[in-house]
């Protein structure tokens, strides 16, 4: 009786701990996310400009990134858009970017109709990490304002992203996608390296001791 009651309490504690942990992770990723400029991406960030995609293709991919829910078109150079770009299709579709391997930061150039531009980044369990909306009235080229929009999650959490405006039809072209993963730049600290060395020495020492004991046993 007592055991089953304490088991039930334990079960509840585990559930509470799991919920607390889940909220903690979402909270951290949200607070870490921030807008990012193209110039703030790493030198080795990957660029995708749609030039390798066939005109009228609804899917554009570089292997890791796949863009869907629109069409590849050649509209020439307007703002930052040049050569082939990707158009949302003149309907209510929302352009989506899926990453095979999650990335830490993502951004894209856009050419939009007169409407605010919204970028959202999600993790692989469909949690919204962050959302960024740009005010079109503060962008150049009234009529079809253009600019760059990007979000930095701080770590490799971005599994997919979406870009859209509140308009339906003739609303959004994108080009020059840039994304990066956060590379592990940390090196082992001297203290932990020393600790490992000490552990290794201890291990070797006790092995030697064991061998000596074994020898002693054989002799006896
Ligand atoms: Ca292009
Ligand atoms: Ca749309």
Q: What would you note in describing this structure?
A:
It comes from Floridaenema fluviatile BLCC-F154. With 220 residues, the chain is an alpha+beta fold. It folds into 2 domains: 1-32; 34-180, Jelly Rolls (Sandwich), CATH 2.60.120.200. 28% of the residues lie in helices and 33% in strands. It contains 2 helices and 13 strands; from the N terminus they run αβββββββββββββα. The strands form 2 sheets. Strands 1, 2, 5, 6, 8, 11 and 13 form a 7-stranded antiparallel beta sheet that branches. Strand 3 (60-61) and strand 4 form a beta hairpin. The longest helix has 31 residues, at 2-32. It starts with a helix and ends with a helix. Residues 1-31, 193-205 and 215-220 have low confidence and may be disordered.
**Secondary structure: number of strands:** 13
Uncertain spans: 1-31, 193-205, 215-220
CATH topology of the largest domain: Jelly Rolls
- Percentage beta strand: 25-35%
Order of helices and strands: HEEEEEEEEEEEEEH
Mean pLDDT: 79
Largest sheet entry: 7 strands, antiparallel
Helix content: 25-40%
Q: So what's the overall shape?
A: globular
Number of discrete domains? 2
- How many H/I helices? 2
Radius of gyration: 27 Å
* Name of the CATH first level of the largest domain: Mainly Beta
Distance, first to last CA: 55 Å
The set of bound ligands, ions and cofactors reads: calcium ion
CATH architecture of the largest domain: Sandwich
Structural class: alpha+beta
Protein name: PEP-CTERM sorting domain-containing protein
Question: Could you give a short description of this structure?
Answer:
The chain has 220 residues and is an alpha+beta fold. The chain has 2 helices and 13 strands.
